Amino acid sequence: MTTEDPKRSSSLDAPRDIGAARLAKVYAQAIVDAADRHQCQAEVLEEFTQIVEDVLPRVDNIASVFESPRISTSDKSALVRTTFSNKVLPITLNALLVLADHGRLGLLTELVVALRRELDQRAGKREAVLTTAHSITPDEQTAILKSVEGSLGESLTAHFSVNPDLLGGLVVRIEDTVYDHSVSTSLVSLADRLKQRSINEIQHRRDRLGSA
Amino acid sequence: MKFNTDEIASVLREEIDRYQSGIDVREVGQVLEVGDGIARVWGLSGVMAGEMVEFPGGVTGLAFNLEENSVGVIILGDYLKVNEGDEVRSTGKLLSVPVGDAVIGRVLDPLGNPLDGKGPIATDLERPVETLAPGVADRQPVREPLQTGIKAIDAMTPIGRGQRELIIGDRKTGKTAIGIDAIINQKHSGVKCFYVAVGQKDSSVAVAIDVLRKHGAMDYTTVIVAGASVAAPLQYIAPYSGTAMAEHFMYNGEHALIVYDDLSKQATAYRQLSLLMRRPPGREAYPGDVFYAHSRLLERSAKLSDEHGGGSLTSLPIIETLEGEVSAYIPTNVISITDGQIYLQPDLFFAGQRPAMNVGISVSRVGGAAQTKAMKKVSGGLRLDLASFRELEAFAQLGTDLDAATQSRLDRGYCMVELLKQGQYQPLDIVDQVLSIYAGTRGHLDDVKRDEVAAWEAGFLTFVRDQTPEVRSRLEETKALDDETERLIEAAIAEYKRQIQGSKKHEPTLAGTT
Asked: Mean pLDDT in chain B?
């Protein structure tokens, strides 16, 4: 369970580049398969997350170096080898080298999102964003999450967010499905029902007038 | 407007008492990019092709392209209100429009929203915009005529109820006028009419609506407008929306007529959408399924079998050609789909022959089955005669001396051409048409000067209406031209000729004044 962290994007957000996300998914599947054989999936994910979130932001222009076609793949591989050998698991190092060989080091950010999603999927865990109108305490968060998991019958990786426009209630988004129990949506549906009722009333009276 | 606050309060109280908070479950996506009437959406993994989706602010869209990683949505409304990152929700419904008597007499947009300022469409009847056409078992052959009120068409290219007759021609050749005339002529026939304006100038549409209103045709007509200024998605769906509204009457055993003005603009709008959606372009950059876009639309016009109520939907699609090029992609497609075409030619139009129908290449594949017996009898052979007259006329222009028989054929041809001229918005009753064409084809106008034919015809029809009403009533009753009716018509013509001869003798001489 996590609270809203602006740095870490949820995998429910739309990717900036669909093509990159699609490619990253393929690499993520392969890396998780390889890690599976060595029973080190969580560690590999942790290392990739650290590389993307802690290491790369500290190095200026590293993204340009990874993406530039003017720097040869052998140079990129050498860079990866000297930087990471003996510092990360062999699986992680190999994965980085494969990425470098294929000129895909620029995909690292998307790869972390894809890895996280792939691992969650294999563990039968789904990512959920729970939005409330007011901020709630961690105890309340745990209670709400337990209740949602209980009613859905599955375990969730939850992110909490606050949106005052909801006025009250709770909105749960799991992948593409939204379970909306907010006051604002209820008011909109009430307004629609009243409008529909008025239309039916007008129609009924008009029909009566027409038949008279 | 004075309203009863107590009543409103009681309704609200009742609603609040009955209120049950339910969870709204929906599938959502996120707008990745938007522009030119289309949006690319991430998510919506369970959306169906053609399903309606909703953007914030009440803008609706239609799932158009289902791709591996995104969904291409066409935006039916103001796409400038949609922003990147907006949430898109699926509705689980197909796009539907209001139908029934509530839409009659109204001017609507392709989503069924009123454009005429006459208040909301108060109905709960809806029909999906895209439906399957009736199958072969649900149909019966077209045999009931749909009178357009235009002599040239009703005599030579008759249209039956349930038929699709294409009106094709260059710009400014009177295509719309034929559609409008056909609508005006349905005044007492009980046929519900639908005029779908696609990609037309709003000023032209305003004129058409005004004409329909002035002739009392808006009492049974619905106008669906997707003008040149609206986004391509609305222009693309407008014909389907109009058809859904018209179909309602067909499936309820009534008769409907729909004019699509015009399908070339719809094809252009569809091409724009398809190219923006990156569908592969084909001939003339149209997508590969542009034929299907038109065939599935026009197949929905049908004459239903008696078990299904016997209703019909007749359609008059209009196609605009460029420089008379009928072999372009869209014209050939629609020609092959429809049951015949009325071809309008600019040179005939400017020569004063209106409607400017080229008799030689205009056909109706339903033909005589959709004509009354009387009309079939008087107009039999007229089309071929006129076509051969055109050849003869070209030959005569060489200046060769003609024998008397050829000269008389030529004169008869000129006379028939004059007789088939007809003013705009002046549809003629079928009985009047039979009388006029009878007089022409039986040679009673051979001695009338060419510039007097129109006046002779008008006078004759007034004469029959006022002085020999038994001829009209007999024709109306029997709808056939038996010997007795022919004898009555001959007598009426003879009497009319005698009367105009007499009046000419008594006219004061105007010699020297002209």
From this structure: 91
Q: How far is CA A51 from CA A88, B7, B504, in A?
A: 10, 66, 108
In a domain, A142, yes or no: yes
- Contact list in A for residue B70 (CB cut-off 8 A) is 18
- Among A193, A202, A206, A149, smallest CA distance to A174 is for A149
What would the pLDDT profile of B455-477 be if each residue is shown by its tens digit?
A: 999 999 999 999 999 999 999 99
Pick the CATH number of B28-94 from 3.30.70.360, 2.40.30.20, 3.20.10.10, 1.20.1260.10: 2.40.30.20
Q: Determine the topology of domain B381-506 in CATH.
A: Lysin (1.20.150)
| Cβ contact A176–B27 (<8 Å) | yes
Does the distance separating the beta carbons of A181 and B23 come in below 8 Å?
yes
**Average pLDDT for B333-356:** 94
**Do A114 and A16 share a domain, yes or no?**
yes
pLDDT tens column, B381-437:
888 888 888 888 888 887 777 788 888 888 889 999 999 999 999 999 999 999 999
pLDDT higher than 90, residue B12:
no
Domain that holds residue A162: 126-182
Mean pLDDT of A178-202: 85
The answer to whether the beta carbons of residues B327 and B177 sit under 8 Å apart is no
CA closest to B31 among chain A residues: A14
CA angle B203, B204, B208 (to 5 degrees): 120
Q: Point out the residues of B that are catalytic.
A: 365
CA–CA dist A157, A118 (Å, integer): 13
pLDDT surpassing 70 at residue A3: no
Specify the residue for token string 């094809």: B267
Q: By three-state DSSP, how is residue B110 classified? A: coil
